[in-house]
Amino acid sequence: xxxxxxxxxxxxxxxxxxxxxxxxxxxxxxxxxxxxxxxxxxxxxxxxxxxxxxxxxxxxxxxxxxxxxxxxxxxxxxxxxxxxxxxxxxxxxxxxxxxxxxxxxxxxxxxxxxxxxxxxxxxxxxxxxxxxxxxxxxxxxxxxxxxxxxxxxxxxxxxxxxxxxxxxxxxxxxxxxxxxxxxxxxxxxxxxxxxxxxxxxxxxxxxxxxxxxxxxxxxxxxxxxxxxxxxxxxxxxxxxxxxxxxxxxxxxxx
Length: 254
Fold this sequence. Notes:
Elements: H1 2-15, E1 45-54, E2 62-75, E3 78-89, E4 94-109, E5 112-127, E6 143-161, E7 164-173, E8 193-203, E9 208-219, E10 222-234, E11 240-248, E12 252-253
Antiparallel strand pairs: 1-2, 2-3, 3-4, 4-5, 5-6, 6-7, 7-8, 8-9, 9-10, 10-11, 11-12
């Protein structure tokens, strides 16, 4: 029975389709949407900290924390971003920890600002058996795996009028399809994820902005499509209030 349980666990693990973590406020951590978006950020420097916790009432909470720092047009229209990620799920403390470096280059062509971005990440996947229950007492060594991750993206930002801008970006993540398996006998490759992100910024007046937006990601058998808008009100030159309403199609409101 012991061998059967372990074999069943490994078989189920080898047949799973891995999926990326994601935030509802996807436009705040652009490293997960498109590495080239750092060249389109409004400020010269951005520091973003996000945390998500899920499933408190069902099981051990899933906790995700992310911190990123980005700098725009530092040298010859090159922009850079560093992102750190910590994700832990369930009693097995199944974790993904690591970081990525993004570099984007932008060029100006008439009313268009076109940027291309590349991202290189180094991550560790790990699992702990300490809090898992087996039919017999087992001493199983914790497993972990390090892997590199390579992604690309392109963004075009167009000024339509003095108060209107249009942005569209396309990216592809995990182009090297890193192996996710925690066993040496099986291989589970992370599917390539394709992301489409588009916004339309309409400055209604000096204090008010209205911004419809679309986000769509496709990864293996999984897909996520969000449609919504942001509403921004500038209190003064230093502070703004931002609200967002989105509909995750066939799922929920955000």
